[in-house]
Amino acid sequence: xxxxxxxxxxxxxxxxxxxxxxxxxxxxxxxxxxxxxxxxxxxxxxxxxxxxxxxxxxxxxxxxxxxxxxxxxxxxxxxxxxxxxxxxxxxxxxxxxxxxxxxxxxxxxxxxxxxxxxxxxxxxxxxxxxxxxxxxxxxxxxxxxxxxxxxxxxxxxxxxxxxxxxxxxxxxxxxxxxxxxxxxxxxxxxxxxxxxxxxxxxxxxxxxxxxxxxxxxxxxxxxxxxxxxxxxxxxxxxxxxxxxxxxxxxxxxxxxxxxxxxxxxxxxxxxxxxxxxxxxxxxxxxxxxxxxxxxxxxxxxxxxxxxxxxxxxxxxxxxxxxxxxxxxxxxxxxxxxxxxxxxxxxxxxxxxxxxxxxxxxxxxxxxxxxxxxxxxxxxxxxxxxxxxxxxxxxxxxxxxxxxxxxxxx
Amino acid sequence: xxxxxxxxxxxxxxxxxxxxxxxxxxxxxxxxxxxxxxxxxxxxxxxxxxxxxxxxxxxxxxxxxxxxxxxxxxxxxxxxxxxxxxxxxxxxxxxxxxxxxxxxxxxxxxxxxxxxxxxxxxxxxxxxxxxxxxxxxxxxxxxxxxxxxxxxxxxxxxxxxxxxxxxxxxxxxxxxxxxxxxxxxxxxxxxxxxxxxxxxxxxxxxxxxxxxxxxxxxxxxxxxxxxxxxxxxxxxxxxxxxxxxxxxxxxxxxxxxxxxxxxxxxxxxxxxxxxxxxxxxxxxxxxxxxxxxxxxxxxxxxxxxxxxxxxxxxxxxxxxxxxxxxxxxxxxxxxxxxxxxxxxxxxxxxxxxxxxxxxxxxxxxxxxxxxxxxxxxxxxxxxxxxxxxxxxxxxxxxxxxxxxxxxxx
Lengths: 409, 409
Prior knowledge:
Chains A, B: InterPro entries: Aminotransferase_I/II_large (IPR004839), AspAT/PAT-like (IPR050596), PyrdxlP-dep_Trfase (IPR015424), PyrdxlP-dep_Trfase_major (IPR015421), PyrdxlP-dep_Trfase_small (IPR015422). Chains A, B: This is Aspartate aminotransferase. The structure is a homodimer. By secondary structure, the first copy, chain A, is α/β, with parallel strands linked by helices. Chain A folds into 2 domains: about 5-45 and about 285-405, Aspartate Aminotransferase, domain 1 (Alpha-Beta Complex), CATH 3.90.1150; about 45-285, Aspartate Aminotransferase, domain 2 (3-Layer(aba) Sandwich), CATH 3.40.640.10. Chain A contains 13 helices and 12 strands. The first copy, chain A, has a 7-stranded mixed beta sheet with strand order 2-8-7-6-5-3-4, sandwiched between helices. A 3-stranded antiparallel beta sheet of chain A has the order 9-12-11. In chain A, helix 3 (about 45-55) packs across helix 10 (about 270-280) and helix 5 (about 95-110) runs parallel beside helix 6. Chains A and B meet through helix 1, helix 3, helix 5, helix 6 and helix 9 of A and helix 1, helix 3, helix 5, helix 6 and helix 9 of B.
């Protein structure tokens, strides 16, 4: 009997996509489904960067340099300068999406059975890359009560073992929308230096920081060897399908090792690199409109949610996600019920159960993640659906309110 | 002290790219370098498939389905039919190049420390993916004397252990150009069924089979669960930079597990999928011209090589590579010397030392791989360079000729 591998068995299916068949069934019944479940922005991809591909003079679409086209890496040096990050073209390795940057980081820095600490709830696909690399994810819990701030350093200290090699942070955070403060980033630096840990910093949502200062891990001084930045153009330019990211580090040994993994897969996508290069030439004002739009959506979403009885949603400082606590028995059941059994005026809403974002079993049962990737009108309609649904959901429970007025807009 | 991982240390640098700095130095001195070292074809990417991208109406470049766009997978079902492979859209998983298909195969089917048998010389990047997956490559040696035919089954039997889980073949072969016969493919089937092994079949060069019948691993009957096909559009449509491949299997458990790895990285490149879809609509006659061109080049190359004293080059049945035995002390030294110290009329040639394609240390020292990816005129000029170089190379040795008249064109 042929067997699949142990990691093939352990590999978690996408918690975000597991509800898709229920959504498809609902749509076949003629129900309109508002998708707040995935981080696929509806913002237009800048036409100028698609035009760059259209206008490119290509006779042979050749492999690029394994680290990505030199011309693109030089452009990225300019881009990073605009966000206060000093880096050279030889410290940037172009990847196939942020995903590949994460995989390269794990493969390059961590041995099988090494441990990586990640504040939960966290981006679920870190689990997948950890399984691929044979690495153990050790979650420490952040809490909705304080808006998912960085857990206290003592929580990190408690779980650090001889096998701990790295901390992963996503800033601004997916799924919580939390924006780490300078103080929190400095706390991460202190613990990384003290325990000799890598700091893997996923900054996919850099451009979408709304309240307070954005602090990159590469802004921190005195820890050049520790930081690996995992980046992507997916959200920055609403170009998720391009599959274009970057692995950025000042640690030469790490860069050189990651480069060997990059050489094995030959090169990152060629057409996407043309887009990426053109994107750096967009005017600085380009981000004003999407950012204003996301802020308006966030404000609407958070207000609507907190006005629903028994619901609590801290105000996220960045990205385009919010986590809400709902008066429900089980978020997986609730999200499935929304698609299978509920509709109002032939409409319903699709949410991501928070359970998939926690590493600790049992957590997230009363929480959902909402991606505000729809326009204000649709978002408002989706909130109407959710409000009605919570009134009639059979598994409704009265939760003790955790509302913290300061956390609310 | 921060350390990189063991696999980061073990990861081999690209043997093909390690000579690049010497080539760059040569070019700076004004020397023209004929690149026969890499499989980057000079054949034009079909304008129609680039036009498909130019004409695509894209408002938001979204993530595609993790298995690739359904429309593209349906098209590929048609394509595979034209090459005699019956497969459904749900047995095709679109990947980022053939590279990712190989990685998914290793991660999905093999545990760390499992062994995979590969006839050597083999595509060097298999080593890289094996290190990434913690898998051990066990080479069995094929020989230039018989044109690198499949080693006898007894050679496989000798190295099979309880840890052996798979065989990898590349057909037509990179780096040897060898095209496996039906009899050889059937022999692989017998041994896979007997020992319960996966057959990973890399068929990147399918369209370029010149002598004899092309037999896909998916043409073999009675072993549906064993076969994983690793495919790519890179060479088929001269679109290496697109990074578009496919993982194809009738084994549902393997497919489902690979799909979880695919979900973790979200989706394959979006613009490339538009190209791939358009490519299936190219007329069947599209391949006539590149194939005729490659055959003409092969004929020239093999004839020129075998006319050089002390050189032997078997006639490859497919792909666009040839392996030649040269009267030299060490192929690594020779290839470096060609770039560093040799030139004739301000020209030299860049070749790939065969040592990088062998898993057994010490093999390949008298062999080089030549990729016939230049037009006939340049190829002829490159052969002039090589002929002169062999006359004056200080490390020239007289080798016992292994010429086999039947193997020569």
